Amino acid sequence: PISSGSRSSKTFKPKKNIPEGSHQYELLKHAEATLGSGNLRQAVLLPEGEDLNEWIAVNTVDFFNQINMLYGTITEFCTESSCPVMSAGPRYEYHWADGTNIKKPIKCSAPKYIDYLMTWVQDQLDDETLFPSKIGVPFPKNFMSVAKTILKRLFRVYAHIYHQHFDSVMRLQEEAHLNTSFKHFIFFVQEFNLIDRRELAPLHELIEKLGSKDR
Q1: Is position 165 annotated in a ligand binding site?
Q2: 78 among the known binding-site residues?
Q3: To the nearest 10°, the Cα dihedral for 162, 167, 171, 174?
Q4: What are the helix and strand counts (H, E) for the chain?
Q5: Which of 4, 15, 26, 23 has the alpha carbon at shortest distance from 133?
Q6: What is the pTM (predicted TM-score) of this model?
Q7: Is the predicted pLDDT of residue 34 greater than 80, yes or no?
Q8: Are 150 and 60 spatial neighbours (Cβ–Cβ below 8 Å)?
Q9: Which has the closest alpha carbon to 132: 44, 145, 120, 141?
Q10: Among 2-6, 9-13, 191-195, 207-211, which range has the highest average pLDDT?
Q11: Pick from 177, 206, 143, 188: which is nearest to 67 by CA?
Q12: Where in the chain are the domains?
């Protein structure tokens, strides 16, 4: 049966494509090539001579697209009734606010929260003043803090999937895909200190485990 929910019918399709032939596209290709080698610690390092903002921008777009796809595989299990609050286990609950449309944090279901979150991220990524796609257009002064907020929020989608939907992920045999994506994400944010440790607490044990396997 098709569940009623704006989301389930229109699984999020990432619109954010990095234009072919652009420098950012070359960077994305570089990232994919080093990922292919299997060494994720190596894959997140800033390529020699590259601009840090641009490297963070390209990877942020890529993580957004990955999380979109991962969440897309389990949307039918993440419903108003199964997930009435946006949580990551019993101790962590998230309330949504974007500072512009919704200033005071609201309590909402996980599918609604994730819908707000992904739409908000998409709007940031589509904003040429924040994420310039044209060569030579400088990144804004506040780029780093924008990127940090985006990544902090994207982390919450991983945290929700791991805590509330991991059984579905296993049934769909998507766990290797999820683990690789998350591990890449974590190594990336650790390399450039992009997410506060407190924010990572809901998946602290998993993060420790991923890190120790790799030393």
Answers
A1: yes
A2: yes
A3: 10
A4: 9, 2
A5: 23
A6: 0.88
A7: no
A8: yes
A9: 141
A10: 191-195
A11: 177
A12: 23-212
